[in-house]
Design goal:
This protein has 14 helices and 12 strands. With about 400 residues, it is an alpha/beta fold. It has a 7-stranded mixed beta sheet, with helices on both faces. Strands 9-10-12 form a 3-stranded antiparallel beta sheet. It has a two-stranded parallel ribbon with strand order 1-11. Helix 2 packs parallel to helix 9. The protein binds pyridoxal-5'-phosphate (PLP).
Length: about 400
């Protein structure tokens, strides 16, 4: 054990991040004195409208887009739903086939499943043992009925980064739009819609120091896509509803801050990530790294410990002041093994024994030391109690 003061070591930044104080400060006036509805025609409303447009410019600048190609949403889930259902609806006459990967977030997978119930055909591309999609497999899956290819930039559970540029090029060779869920990538990697060739890109504020319930969908000009919400003329008639002005302001400020020092920030997290991975693999037997060893988010550690249950690791870590996750936050309440880990070929019992630690700007080397000092003891104790552990001399 350790003599350090008890305090929270938060290592679940893929689930959510604390809102940065500068972001909260930027948002506050838009709840109170600048409370106007951006659609109204007087000064207090104009201030709100200008703030929304300024935030749009900030989001656009962060991803290399034009401001008129950025549409605010209630988060990553809505952006994913809109991209997929919107393109499907606008292209129904052209075809009825969508290509995605087997390891997408449920915001994409469940959207596709819902389209399947309406008669759409969906190909869920397999991945290799590291969670990578082979662009060649995308090419093989394309038919003359394919209207969209959607592959995430980086995975929320295992951190694997996809070859999105190569995938986008293949889609474009066949005149098919390419969507990427970049929810986990923004603030961790440089993301640029021109460099990747994305026609649609989803992002979410709370993953990079912004408020929850905020996000955006980038839509390249001339992409055929239906409106998401019917009603007023907000977001150029494509996403009706009075804008969440404070949230949008916060999103704009957060993306500006998160992308300003991205290389430096990523290098710092990468060093801590690698120390954690090495430390865990070196000190705990029967352990393997999930996800790609190199093509991986700078803040993601995901390790499978044999003979133990992820939930028991989490409870033990919680008692020691460490907040972590077994898989994605959305599935951690479910008893099903992670669809991401099983798609990578992990047997269900090993998928169940996986732990995800995701770092953020407030984590320190001291936090890494602490986790490395407590986790081997936790795993050893759980293995002693586990009926799955092979008995010595057997
Ligand atoms: C890859 C990915 N896509 C989409 C989402 C959903 O984003 P939001 O929480 O903003 O709805 C998440 C959140 O966990 C995610 O990790």
């Amino acid at each position: 054990m350790t003599d350090r003061e008890p305090r929270l070591v938060y290592m679940d930044h893929a689930a959510t991040t604390p809102t940065r104080p500068e972001v909260v400060e930027a948002m506050l006036p838009y709840f109170t004195e600048r409370f106007g509805n951006p659609s109204s025609l007087y000064a207090v409303a104009r201030e709100a409208k200008e703030a929304v447009e300024e935030a749009r410019g900030r989001v656009a600048a962060a991803i290399g887009a034009k401001p008129e190609e950025v549409f605010f949403t209630s988060g990553g889930t809505e952006a994913d739903n809109w991209a997929i259902k919107g393109v499907a609806a606008a292209n129904r006459k052209k075809g009825d086939h969508i290509i995605t990967s087997a390891i997408e977030h449920h915001a994409v997978i469940h959207t596709c499943r819902s389209l399947e119930k309406q008669g759409w055909q969906v190909t869920y591309l397999p991945v290799d043992e590291f969670g990578r999609v082979d662009p060649g497999v995308v090419e093989e899956a394309i038919t003359d009925k394919t209207v969209l290819v959607s592959v995430m930039t980086a995975n929320n559970e295992i951190g694997t980064i996809q070859p999105v540029r190569a995938i986008a090029e293949i889609a474009h060779d066949h005149k098919i739009p390419f969507h990427t869920d970049a929810v986990q990538a923004i603030g961790a990697l440089p993301v640029n819609v021109e460099a990747t060739g994305a026609d649609l890109l989803s992002l979410s504020g709370h993953k990079f120091g912004g408020p929850k319930g905020t996000g955006a969908l980038y839509i390249r000009k001339k992409t055929r896509i239906g409106a998401f919400m019917d009603g007023g003329a907000q977001e150029r008639g494509r996403r009706a509803g009075t804008e969440n002005v404070p949230g949008i302001v916060g999103l704009g400020r957060a993306i500006e801050l998160a992308t300003a020092d991205i290389e430096e920030h990523a290098a710092r997290l990468r060093a801590m990530r690698d120390r954690l991975i090495r430390g865990l693999l070196d000190t705990i037997p029967d352990t393997r790294l999930n996800g790609h060893p190199v093509e991986r988010l700078p803040n993601n550690v995901n390790v499978a410990f044999r003979y133990v249950e992820g939930e028991s690791i989490l409870l033990s870590l919680d008692a020691l002041g460490v907040a972590a996750s077994t898989g994605s936050a959305c599935t951690s309440a479910s008893l099903e093994p992670s669809h991401v880990l099983t798609a990578c070929g992990l047997p269900p019992e090993q998928a169940h024994g996986s732990l995800r630690l995701t770092l953020g700007s407030r984590n320190t080397e001291d936090d890494v030391d602490y986790v490395l000092s407590v986790l081997p003891g936790v795993i050893e104790r759980l293995r002693q109690m586990s009926p799955l552990t092979p008995k010595r001399n057997e």
